[in-house]
Design brief:
Helix content is about 45%, strand content about 10%. A five-stranded mixed beta sheet has the order 2-1-3-11-4, sandwiched between helices. Strands 6-9-5-10 form a four-stranded mixed beta sheet. It has a two-stranded antiparallel ribbon with strand order 7-8.
Length: about 475
């Protein structure tokens, strides 16, 4: 054998060995990844649904082996932890149960989705979990791109125990569930009893038509007796929460928005809702200032005593009941101390209205907003296992009770509301649980955030009279259709 041939053969052998080594190493990593999560038996020591829905969460069998060597996990939290006391409590409980430290980065909701995409596109393994603060609009994009880890604890029995209006929004086309709910907020209708009475509103509005009449009366009374910076009704028209108002009007008529995979607002029900909300501004029952208000702004206006009514997040009951955060709520509209219906001040809540008297009470419905929670599929296997455990705990009855009691968020697990020990600690439990029961959840297709921006722009122009409302809606819908063509 010549020297040249020997060198050639040696080179081939070395290349084969190198290739086999890489293949073996890759297979080893794949096996380790598979084995780390497969070490967990989600249906032991008892069925997953029983571990989740008992008074105290029970860790699944094999979790210690699956997370061996994991000292901490890290995730993106939507906003500051100071505003998430229930999340902080649940992190504390998880750490006590597992010994795994949970760390987080406080990321503004304005940039959260972009930062999440940056992590996923770059396959950054250092961030193990993420919250998506616009779950209904953002999840489809993430799941469709293959950027979320399947959550194996979502057995058929677990799916059946959680709201069938929300679980499909967490589910991929392959039938696997890729997320859970981080926090959840339903809408309820807030009003000031003394203000309605002073303005001559004889009954609490139950339909959107009655709300309009009451808004005109309470606004006129306030302008005459209180000042020009008092309003009949307030709502947000700057951010995506405007869409929640439009959706409430549509759902209250028994219709939905997404049709044939496209957000469709230029429908008979959509036109009714569009004219209604633009009309509140055009007719003066709501101020033009709503065009600059986000979800937080308009609710603060109400809790400062400046508005008679609003469709607001159920979480705001905790704000209204707090004398330090909402001192104006502790007085009636004449500035006199008032205990109100439940001893927490001059305010009350009911289910969202239905469209008109002809609609069934089941259409007293609004949108339900939730932050989704997902696991980074590019994280290391043992850290994914740990983050899956944290994700599962967050949706348990124990964790949901903390969301209800401590923070005022709604409970993803419906059985939380029926526990007498929990109910007695919740303000306005009946209208809140009824609102969750009738709420409508739609999974919006990719591109919906752009569609939302388009609607917000045209809404503002039509609300201040620069363009006819129906013409504005037609033009907006045309642009939205163009996104999906």
């Amino acid at each position: 054998m010549t020297k040249r041939l020997s060198i050639l053969l040696l080179t081939v052998v070395l290349m084969l060995a190198f290739t086999m080594g890489i293949t073996a190493e890759g297979q080893k990593e794949a096996d380790e990844e598979q084995n780390a999560i497969d070490l967990i038996n989600w249906d032991a020591p008892k069925a997953a649904v029983d571990r989740l829905t008992g008074d105290e969460y029970v860790l699944p069998e094999g979790w210690e082996a699956a997370t061996e060597g994991v000292e901490e996990i890290f995730y993106f939290n939507s906003g500051g932890m100071g505003g998430d006391p229930a999340t902080a409590k649940n992190i504390e409980l998880f750490q006590e149960m597992t010994g795994i430290e949970v760390k987080w980065a406080e990321v503004s909701s304005e940039i959260l989705f972009q930062k999440t995409l940056n992590v996923l596109v770059s396959k950054d393994e250092s961030v193990h979990g993420m919250s998506l603060d616009s779950g209904p609009y953002e999840l489809r994009e993430v799941i469709g791109a293959g950027w979320a880890e399947p959550m194996p604890f979502w057995t058929d029995e677990v799916k059946a125990a959680y709201p069938d209006s929300i679980v499909p929004a967490l589910t991929g086309d392959d039938g696997k569930v890729y997320a859970t709910v981080d926090t959840m907020r339903s809408y309820v209708f807030y009003y000031r009893p003394s203000w309605l009475e002073a303005a001559g509103v004889e009954k609490v509005p139950e339909t959107w038509q009655e709300v309009r009449e009451a808004a005109i009366k309470t606004d006129a009374w306030a302008k005459e007796n209180l000042g020009q910076d008092y309003y009949g009704i307030v709502f947000p028209a700057k951010s995506y929460n405007l869409l929640h108002m439009l959706q409430a009007g549509i759902y209250s008529q028994g219709a939905k928005v997404v049709q044939d995979g496209i957000p469709s607002y230029n429908t008979p029900e959509g036109r009714n809702s569009w004219k209604y909300w633009t009309g509140l501004v055009r007719d003066g029952a709501a101020p033009e200032a709503v065009l600059g208000w986000t979800w937080n702004d308009y609710q603060n206006v109400f809790s400062r005593g400046k508005a008679a009514m609003m469709l607001g997040f159920s979480t705001w009951v905790n704000v209204c009941a707090d004398p330090e955060k909402a001192p104006a709520m502790q007085e009636n509209v004449f500035g006199e101390s008032a205990a109100g219906p439940i001893g927490k001040g001059d305010w009350a809540v009911v289910q969202p209205p239905k469209w008109d008297a002809s609609e069934p009470d089941s259409n007293r419905a609004a949108f339900i907003d939730f932050d989704a929670f997902m696991v980074n599929p590019f994280a290391k296997p043992e850290q994914k296992a740990a983050m899956l455990l944290f994700s599962e705990f967050k949706m348990s009855k124990q964790a949901m009770a903390n969301e209800l009691i401590i923070e005022g968020n709604e409970a993803f697990y419906p059985g939380t509301y029926t526990d007498p020990k929990i109910r007695e600690q919740i303000m306005w439990a009946d209208p809140r649980s009824a609102s969750v029961d009738t709420t409508v959840m739609e999974a919006f297709p990719p591109g919906s955030m752009k569609a939302n921006d388009t609607l917000i722009e045209y809404f503002g122009r039509s609300a201040i009279g620069k363009i006819d409302p129906i013409k504005a809606l037609e033009e907006a819908q045309s642009e939205i259709d163009g996104i999906y063509r």
